[in-house]
Amino acid sequence: xxxxxxxxxxxxxxxxxxxxxxxxxxGRTLSAGGVTVRLTEVEAYAGTGEDxxxxxxxxxxxxNAIMFGPAGFAYVYFTYGMHWCMNVVxxxxxxxxxxxxxxxxxxxxxxxxxxxRPAVRRDVDLARGPxxxxxxxxxxxxxxGLDLLDRASPVRxxxxxxxxxxxxxxAGPRVGVTGAxxxxxxFWIAGDPTVxxxxxxxxxxxx
DNA sequence: GGGCCGATCAAG
DNA sequence: TTGATCGGCCCA
Length: 207
Description:
Blueprint: H1 10-14, H2 18-25, E1 29-32, E2 35-45, E3 74-79, E4 83-90, E5 97-108, H3 110-116, H4 130-137, E6 156-158, E7 169-172, E8 186-189
Antiparallel strand pairs: 1-2, 1-6, 2-5, 2-8, 3-4, 4-5, 7-8
The chain binds a DNA duplex (12 and 12 nucleotides) through residues 43, 45, 53-55, 58, 61-63, 77-83, 85, 87, 100, 102, 119, 129-132, 135, 174-177, 199, 201, 204.
């Protein structure tokens, strides 16, 4: 067994602070449905009472229950009546923090990803956005609650080629979030072409 | 039970 | 810029 410097076990990193967990997920790979992406953009969400933008902000419900469990499990949700998005649950049991996977670079299974997203022209757009990423990997409701660190899981998170150095990570406000604009909890690999476009939340006009 | 709105995307 | 489309959550 080699002894080259390695990152600490992923599960223990995920069990800690959500911001650290989010940063450490960059550069890791996520595999499902014959496709593997290298994560290039993520967002941190804190738990109940701390973060108005979190799906767990108002407490535990059937939908968000998995967020209250241990780290490393998948919180998948349906939105806008048509899209799936995936989070990695972080923190210790009782702490409902999670990291939204916003974008990735398809590093293998490009053909399978293209088959699921026929309208896409450039490879960099295959998983450029949280719902696009799930679509490219074929992730839907059936992935809810899976242990992403279990070797036998159909949706799997692994180490990735190499750690992303801190100075290669950029941070900014989260996409589509109404409040907490001072909080820079969106993290991405600086300069990476697969990072999604930033869209500030625009409140609908009230009459 | 009713109404509102969203951690989005693709086309115009 | 806008429409698609529906589940979750709040309030009555």
